[in-house]
Amino acid sequence: MVWIVAALSALCIFTAAGTALVVRHMIGLRRGHASFRCKIRVRGGWLSGFQTTWPKRISRAMWARDVLIVFRGFGLLKMWPLAVASAEGAVHNLPRSEVSRLGSDPVALVLVLDDGPRLQVAASAEERDLLCGPYLVADAIPDRGSQSSR
Q1: Any idea which fold 35-140 has?
Q2: Does residue 105 register a pLDDT over 80?
Q3: Where are the domains of the chain?
Q4: pTM (two decimals)
Q5: Rounded to an integer, what distance in angstroms lies between the CA atom of residue 143 and that of residue 67?
Q6: Is residue 149 pLDDT above 50, yes or no?
Q7: Are residues 60 and 73 in contact, defined by beta-carbon separation less than 8 angstroms?
Q8: Which positions ≥6 away from 65 have C-beta within 8 Å?
Q9: What's the rounded Cα separation, in Å, for the pair 84 and 106?
């Protein structure tokens, strides 16, 4: 009987510690790094783990030189490093009805990966500079609107 109580106590302690680590990871992503909330979809080609439609859940991403590091999943524990070859076009506005949970004026940028797939990354207008990362020229080009919003 004593061993059952000890086992349940240990299980509770490990569960609480695991939950605390997940919460600490999520808070650290929001505070300490230049990460931004985003949604990502595939526009051309194929990439494992990503869809051609906008996902329902928000991801967080951050730039490390020319690599976009994307955190997804429960507790943002799944990480995808995406090596980016170039930005295609300029940052453009998206209709609010096209992508949800990114504020009233979402913006997007198409990125071409080293492997060939093209991704469209959407973020809120307030995080436009973080979205561009090392491709600041994409932010400087005047916005002519997107093909999808016409």
Answers
A1: PH-domain like (2.30.29)
A2: yes
A3: 1-32, 35-140
A4: 0.76
A5: 24
A6: no
A7: no
A8: 134
A9: 21
